[in-house]
Input
Amino acid sequence: MEAATSADDPTGAIIAAWRAESARLVGALTRMTRDVDLAEDLAQDALLAALEQWPSGGVPENPTAWLMTTAKRRGIDHFRRADNLRRKVAGLDHARGEEVAEMPDLDAQVDYIEDDVLRLIFLSCHPLLTVESRVALTLRLVGGLTTTEIARGFLTTESTMGQRISRAKKTLSEAHAEFELPTGPERTRRLDDVMAVIYLIFNEGYTATSGAHWMRPDLANEAMRLARMLAALAAEEPEVLGLQSLLEIQGSRVAARLDEYGMPVLLEAQDRTRWDRLLIRRGMAALQQANLLAARGKPVGKYFLQATIAAQHARAERAEDTDWGRIADLYDVLADAAPGPVVEVNRAVAHGRAFGPDAGLAVLAELGSGVLRDSPLVPSVRGDLLERAGLHAQAGEAFIEAAARTRNESERAVLHRRAELNLTHAAKPG
Output
């Protein structure tokens, strides 16, 4: 059956247009009004108008221009009611160099509008905000997600998430945060913040920290979309391209990470024919472009290196074809470039595969006790390495410890199953 056209499904067309264009719309309105809260309200008003008018009047040829025109007219009405028509309308019009009645040709000003999106991303990740607020505001303003969708993704109530978003916008307003792109070292630092937020969103979608489900694909998909958007806006930054590559290559595995019963499937057991080849091609293309920029002297970092590691897995048609020696070498480089306990745990996995379980256990031993003690990561990797070394009783105990630490029900079930298998194996007479 053919997919429904926009004429057949105007509500679907509205949702698609909003999800695709809301960041550009809110960004342009924020630049015009210098008020992110008002800009979002105007954009939402335009969305409601579309929901009211498009089903009966038809989907306009240029949905983005229609939404922008409607939002700006609502903005003019707002300022008129506030008795600031002359000053505010002049500000709106001078921002576009036009008369009140004329609206911008968005298609002719793509670069300008795209700069608005980049400004919006940086504003959403302002250093005055907490990490949690940055994530929520990015999903709201840049991702176009509703408060309900964001709350569902992070397993909190709609009212709690709404308060978090409102506080974030109030913080920006009270600080008179500039809707301008930072420059120099400040831009680099803020770009790192932006990438970190997108990476955090993806990780929560790829492996949920809590709840009944192992993954939240909607969050992972939204993070990939944000990474592609950022890469299009900052196309000369190899780290941004590295982030896009990393997320798309890892995201290609989502369908293969659950079996037919909805149980998690670990990387080496996945059916690689189920990996999304389009996402892999996109990720590889972004990585190739990042490599070209790096060859010209552009600095690279942890996302580029992690994407290079992910590419090693993507190139292996079978798990046994994986070049673990190369991956171990790359993790050694990553450990120098971006040291941290999570990198060391992953380095332990790579060394365990490349040089034997004892080598991996030696890397883990260097971490010391108490590291990541609220996370199941260390004991689960220790259990895997002990299992590979044939020390099944110790492996079972490690998996039990990991299961006790996780807040994710699906992950807990997998860890308990691995613990049971190892303890059963250890109990068998030798």
Observations:
- The two ends are 60 Å apart (CA to CA).
